[in-house]
Known about the structure:
This protein is of the alpha/beta class and 312 residues long. It has helices at 28-39, 51-63, 81-94, 121-142, 175-199, 218-221, 225-238, 243-246, 248-255, 284-287, 289-303; strands at 19-23, 43-48, 71-75, 100-103, 148-152, 205-209, 264-267, 277-279.
Amino acid sequence: MTKKQSxxxxxxxxQTGRLFVVTxxxxxxxxxxxxxxxxxxxxVVLAVRDEEKGRRAVDELVAAGVAPDLLDxxxxxxxxxxxxxxxxxxxxxxxxxxxxxxxNAGVMAPPRTLSPQGHELQFATNHxxxxxxxGLLLDLLAAGRDPRVVTVSSINHRQGRLRFDDLAGxxxxxxxxxxxxxxxxxxxxxxxxxxxxxxxxxxxxxVLAHPGYTATRLQIRDTSGxxxxxxxxxxxxxxxxxxxxxxxxxxxxxxEPGLAGGEFIGPDGMAELRGAxxxxxxxxxxxDAGTGRRLWGVSEDLTGVxxxxxxx
Length: 312
């Protein structure tokens, strides 16, 4: 693919009549993604942990000229599988199809915390919640127009590995190492989802994206100590790009006509830290089919969600 140095949100085709779910839509990349989809006529369900923050985000978008009837706020705590099931159930009650699911939300490098179901918080929020949500909405997606699942990973996936014998960090926890594990899991899941969708002839396409280094509250909301200082005083002000720029790869993945399943879209600049959307490399470890099958099985066991697609 030729580098899309000139690709901006202005090149998003008309999205009138299409329905999107964007997780973590009240701030950062999720808010920027929601803004551009709705500007192009797409209806967006803002899936947010805090409804009040979601409503404030809608007020901000409407003040910027987005039509209010294109925005719906729904509660979703990805760390809590009961909340994921409740959100999916409400979607099924209110809609008979879904065109695009953007698995965007995440947490980064908090102190070791467990989810309501006892899973390490980053693995629970960044991977397990999105795994379960995708499976529970897959039949709605299959009824959509040019349906896609966009899984947002990170350049950090290349530093990650899956600690299958200690996913909850009981025998040793390092905040950034477990963040990298969760983003590696995103990459493995996105690729394995593509394999399974393709193998069963599903109309749904699985696509991966990453935002490079983007200045959002993700880096400072849950981090502490030296790591938080580095992000606050060095990385975010001097190296990172804006959320509007960082959202371009996932917007491209969600809307570019003819984009094939299995693609990984990220920035085209140095070290993929910033730039315009282009196809980028998935690590060999994340692309390994055996790792994909193993993570899939573990994820089904931990969430209780079974997809109507099987390994090819």
